[in-house]
Specification:
By secondary structure, this protein is mostly helical. It has one domain. 52% of the residues lie in helices and 0% in strands. The protein is elongated.
Length: 84
């Protein structure tokens, strides 16, 4: 079971925890051609290491990930509170 994560996601967040907890972030990795999904070291690497390895700007990536998580949370909230 993934470790509960706090938002915002930081450079020190472990990739496996991030992708397991917030599946909405997986398309971001794919779009940026970060082949972290299924990588055996995903349990050990954090966001900073992945961005460095793939030549992705850390602050830009963190902004995109945190925005996707916020949009997903808002969508879930609307779905839970929709009239039956």
């Amino acid at each position: 079971m993934p470790t509960p994560l706090t938002v915002p996601i930081t450079a020190e967040t472990i990739l496996d925890d991030l992708m397991s907890t917030y599946k909405v972030t997986i398309p971001i990795f794919i779009r940026r051609k970060m082949m972290c999904i299924g990588c055996p070291v995903v349990r050990l690497h954090d966001v900073r290491e992945a961005c460095r390895e793939h030549g992705v700007l850390l602050d830009e990536f963190l902004g995109e990930v945190n925005a996707a998580i916020a949009r997903g949370a808002a969508k879930d909230h609307r779905r839970r509170n929709a009239p039956a």
